[in-house]
Amino acid sequence: MKTQKSTYDASTNFKGMTVERYYTVPGIHPFDKIEWERRTASITDMKGMVIFEQTDVEMPSFWSQTATNIVVHKYFHGTPGTPQRETSVKQLIERVTRTITTWGQEDDYFAADQDSENFYAELTHLLVNQQASFNSPVWFNVGIEEHPQSSACFINAVEDTMESILDLAKTEGFIFKYGSGSGVNLSPLRSSKEYIRGSGKASGPVSFMRGYDAFAGVIKSGSKARRAAKMVILNIDHPDIVEFINCKMTEEKKAHALIEQGYPPEEAYDSIFFQNANNSVRVSDAFMQAVVDDQQWQTVAVTTGETLGTYRARDLLRQIARATHACGDPGLQYDTTINDWHTCPHSDRIHASNPCAEFLFLNGTSCNLASLNLMQFRTPDGEFDVDSFLHAVNIMIIAQEIIIDRASYPTSAITENSRKFRPLGLGYTNLGALLMARGLPYDSDAGRAYAAVITALMSAQAYKTSAMLAQVRGAFDGYSINREAMLRVIQKHACAVETIDRRDLPEKMVSTAQTLWQETLELGETYGYRNTQVTVLAPTGTISFMMDCDTTGIEPELALIKYKHLAGGGNLKIINNTVTEALIHLGYTDEQQAHILEHLRTHETIERAPHLKSSDLAVFDCAFPPRNGQRVIHYMGHLNMMAAVQPFISGGISKTVNVPNSITPDEIMDIYLKAWKMGIKAVAIYRDGSKQMQPLTTSEKKEPKEEFHPVRRRLPNERQALTHKFSVGGHEGYVTVGLYEDGTPGELFIVMSKEGSTISGLMDGLATSVSLALQYGVPLEVLVNKFAHTRFEPGGFTGNRDIPMAKSILDYIFRWLAIKFLKPEDRPSVLPLPHPALNGNGQIETGQVEQSQETEDERQLKLWVAKNERQVFQAQSDAPPCNICGELMVRNGSCYKCLNCGSTSGCS
């Protein structure tokens, strides 16, 4: 491999870009360097029904089955079952890379034919080896249409006229149709406190939001049955700001009421407004300072500028915090900070963002996104490969730049502005896995410094490539009037490198970043820049699955354990691959690793694992606490990471700061204040459990014609009984089950500890309740499914081979009852799964099961491992279900992603 040159001769003039080969060699196609195999791609819903299947698809052998399923389902073009349907990843990647290369040739981007072929080979290598990926619209549309919609993000504008208001609905509709998302600031619309011609009161922006929301709710995105993604923003000085702050919270209360009356959660949320958009309030430094100083704040009329309302600034921010506490919206966008980093202030201010708030630019613009998989840029010894990374940045920026002029846009204004200002959105994904693999805690100074320098390298190289493109293609059209302002922003980026804590960083990373920013500044002073913006940090939902990433965007690991559904019921626990890499990097022996991994698999937490040093525990902290542990990344850890990388990003960061259910509105208010002081451009906060996606109660419809009266079935005076001695975490007890004549259980006695103690009384009361339930006809499987896996102390080892671990005494008793009295098909969720052997990497060795003794559970396990590789993270039970396959989704930036089929509610 050649070493990437770190300098660029600004005095040389090219007729086009020269592209050197780094990964590939002439005469050998990138596809020929890897092994391929035929597979079946399949996606099932929650009931196990197949909702998509394509057989005999050609995939790289190292792509996971998850990547196979999602890419074939989402990105392969053509009607399934027809000859026009794509059948190989080769076709998919070739369609995109060859099209972009041809566009580049036709538009004179390359100095010679050899440069274009070099570019094609290098880009193809990056994509097929999961080092990089474009946003979804590129995969959907490039190579299919002559002028494809290729951008994931759009920012719209609206004026205070009915024509403009209705035009916005039409524009958003076309954006959603082709798989993208849009944002808009509705502050130009006069408030409901102002008048229209004819002396009537105006409707106000919140009223129009109802229409926009309903329209978005019925439009599927990209013909892929994905819900539309949108952002709605209102300025803090708009007269309707209070109504805007509370609108989603008010609707949330309606959903809660419907769920309490027995309506399914999905149906309840589908029947209320404002569920198809993320809401954000634009706040200025003046407002935030008024909060700090406890000053008054005034809202002003859109039409006349007169004061229409006076509020205590703290009260407004507190209302925002209360609404966020209740339903997750609105978030905050810090207007002054955003515009202080604006490269084109003389063209207009930045008023809005895309749905996930990473693209922050002028109204009427778009951004095509791409992301780099950080885990794929490491040397064999685990160090970050700076040269490889910089070369990949160079290739991806050229590719994204080529797309701009050949893409289509929903309006003439967006077409004009996108080609005039040419914003790009290169970012990265898998940061959380990279930090863990390197043995760096996500919430640490060292982890933040490592993330910051990588981000600095990416943006410096991206802007440098943009300046090189400006030399051969010319600067963007608005550069001349914004030259000084843009160079000031580049200088701010360069100066921020000096603030990175370099104590624990490889010297090459820091010195290269410093050199690159200086070169970028010098090139810009000479040639300008081809692009106004070059980098963002997007949530990277579906494309992270395509690249087999363990983590998405800037997020940390969700959990150390992945769950895979078994076709016959239950879940299989798989340890994340990154855990083993981290243990190796931290110096643990093979034997120590095996013990730690076994502890993690058995206990579902790495806490208290043998051999593991307490000083290393923080490396394995995740976004959610483990089932049997306490450690979790504090929400300030998320905020501090955003603050560390923000100075090196052209746009914003799509990341939700997850906070615990117990947090108070005042604490959320404090987070908003801290984010502002840290210089973060936008922040969204989500309190776990604030969405009520699970039923509170079940209301049964009464049948007036017939009343049901339960009848108690008493046991005979003399009855058979079974007594079982048990121990849970060292706490011994006895459970006795009285039996009917047919051998079914009819009563329960539980004896624990000393007579008269609290635990003894509770167990006695529980046993009486269960006995009455059984005698009144409640099926035992209902009780088992209700009480099995309940977790509280005491819990732990049991000594029972069938139930080696129990999460509580209740968990043990009801799982024991299931084993003794239920048929196997009635107890899939409570029986322990077969314990497959782990190899040195903490992965399952599927060949361990002997054919001659194969049980049905084992057979289903083998079928599953061979057929599917679906990840299920059993947290955030309040997340919405995926509208494709029905699985519960999980948070992904400001949006959600489905771990089963790869669908997202965002725009990337």
From TrEMBL:
Residues 38-130 form the Ribonucleotide reductase class II vitamin B12-dependent N-terminal domain. Residues 151-686 form the Ribonucleotide reductase large subunit C-terminal domain. It comes from the Bacteria. Keywords: Cobalamin, Cobalt, Disulfide bond, DNA synthesis, Nucleotide-binding, Oxidoreductase. It catalyses: a 2'-deoxyribonucleoside 5'-diphosphate + [thioredoxin]-disulfide + H2O = a ribonucleoside 5'-diphosphate + [thioredoxin]-dithiol. GO terms for biological process: DNA biosynthetic process. Its cofactor is adenosylcob(III)alamin. GO terms for molecular function: cobalamin binding; cobalt ion binding; nucleotide binding; ribonucleoside-diphosphate reductase activity, thioredoxin disulfide as acceptor. SUPFAM superfamilies: PFL-like glycyl radical enzymes (SSF51998). Residues 716-818 form the TSCPD domain. The keyword Kinase does not apply. It is an enzyme of class 1 (oxidoreductase). Its EC number is 1.17.4.1. InterPro entries: RdRp_reductase_class-2, RNR_2_N, RNR_lg_C, RNR_NrdJ/NrdZ, TSCPD_dom. Catalyzes the reduction of ribonucleotides to deoxyribonucleotides. May function to provide a pool of deoxyribonucleotide precursors for DNA repair during oxygen limitation and/or for immediate growth after restoration of oxygen. Belongs to the ribonucleoside diphosphate reductase class-2 family. This is Vitamin B12-dependent ribonucleotide reductase. It comes from Vecturithrix granuli.
